[in-house]
Specification:
Helix content is 76%, strand content 0%. With 128 residues, it is mainly alpha-helical. It has one domain (2-118). Helix 3 (42-62) packs antiparallel against helix 4 and helix 4 packs antiparallel against helix 5. The longest helix has 24 residues, at 2-25. It is globular and about 45 Å long. This is DoxX family protein. InterPro entries: DoxX.
Amino acid sequence: METAFLIGRLIVGLYYLFNAGNHFFQVKALSGYAQSKGIPAPNIAVLGSGVLLLIGGLSLLTGFQPTLGVAALVIFFIPVTFTMHAFWKIQDPMMRTMEMVNFMKNLALMGSSLMFLAIPQPWPYSLF
């Protein structure tokens, strides 16, 4: 069971690190999208959300301070989910569906992040 947990941790941690990288390397594109959603200071918001994803991803990947990592992810997910993917505000059916899928995905990812808090610490195979 510990090996399965480690594999899952690696997959999830790398997922968040990949997305953090997108926030750092695709700032212009993501800032434009954030601006279109009415986000103030979109460059700062994109970079700040990238930092939260980086903290969360590294924490889950290494097992270092998982409570802090989960907190960073929840702090990321709450505003992003409800501002960037507010599907109820969109009239176009295709765009509405796309945003609803992203909204639900974010809720599921946030829920799965919170479940990490139920696992006794230190985690098996933690680096620190």
